[in-house]
Amino acid sequence: xxxxxxxxxxxxxxxxxxxxxxxxxxxxELVEACRPRFDGHAQPRVPLWGRYDDxxxxxxxxxxxxxxxxxxxxxxxxxxxxxxxxxxxxxxxRGFLGSSEGERAPFALMWANxxxxxxxxxxxxxxxxxDPERLVSSDVDDFVALLELxxxxxxxxxxxxxxxxxxYFSIFDSSFFLRELxxxxxxEAIARARDSLGRRGHALHLAAIEPGRDVQPELAxxxxxxVTHYVLLPDWSGPFLQDYAQRAAACAATWPELARxxxxxxxxxxxxxxxxxxxxxxxxxxxxxxxxxSPVVVGEHPERFRDAxxxxxxxxxxxxxxxxxxxxxxxxxxxxxxxxxxxxxxxLRWLEAxxxxxxTLAACSSSSLPQHSA
Length: 374
Known about the structure:
The chain is an alpha/beta fold. It has one domain (about 1-365): Glycosidases (TIM Barrel), CATH 3.20.20. The chain is built from twelve helices and twelve strands. Strand 2 and strand 3 (about 85) form a beta hairpin. Helix 5 (about 140-155) runs parallel beside helix 7. The longest helix has 19 residues, at about 350-365. The radius of gyration is 20 Å and the shape is globular.
């Protein structure tokens, strides 16, 4: 049983955001500037060790080492690719792989098939939550090229994450990928990618993230191997304030049905919290009822997160296949309020919760063994 944390690679300046905002812009500005917007609102949520540049191997290595010491086994980096163009790649290539920890720690890629936001904080509530221009189009040749690049630069590394011997790769918006290509073209793209990787000595484990109901029955036939989520916590049609423990339990109740609907193993994902307020301008009491302003999950606490993670570990142990993964969203998405990294509020207790959840699973496993008298 392994635990993998998603990593948001957007904590350094890039030319695209320099042009959209100002030279040197990063989302640290949003995180540090956010202020409480209702009674008891836990903002700003800031790192205990301060802001950092995720291209810096020393800073990244320190955080990876802390996570591994507390029971995080692997790290799934967001991989922004749009027909050969990449952004935020230096977080992985320089920050993680350039560190001594990154040379050893297992890692994998999640294709973030959306480009980063060009307007932050979001100021207009009349616009779509997802700007259509951010959606990354693809086709058969493009998908094969993406996987070939991933194989050449990453799958070949000895510490690339594998599931039952196959290189793990996930697609963030699997529904858009399937709807845009169509099922036949998507099946061809995946089959051709597998053939190409096979000639290079790699087998592929392809995971679909948060597939819509319309595509769930098609995932196995198209060529996916498992299904999972990124953040599975807020109820987008629910009230503005949502209780963490209630939402975590409600989400866990959906895991078996999703596995049945997709006819694939479901590898659960849990989050320590959710609050994307830093990404939205402060509208006061007239806040819009949509992302990034609403909802906000309240009542998050390391002990409640420990319980949610322990539940995910128990589920995966029983239902997620012979080599299961459990995901945490995320290591460091500070601007959406889900980060395992030490924070100014709870210190290292989010990471300590990971260790405690693993200990709980180990204790349960030991107690289930048959007892023999002397």
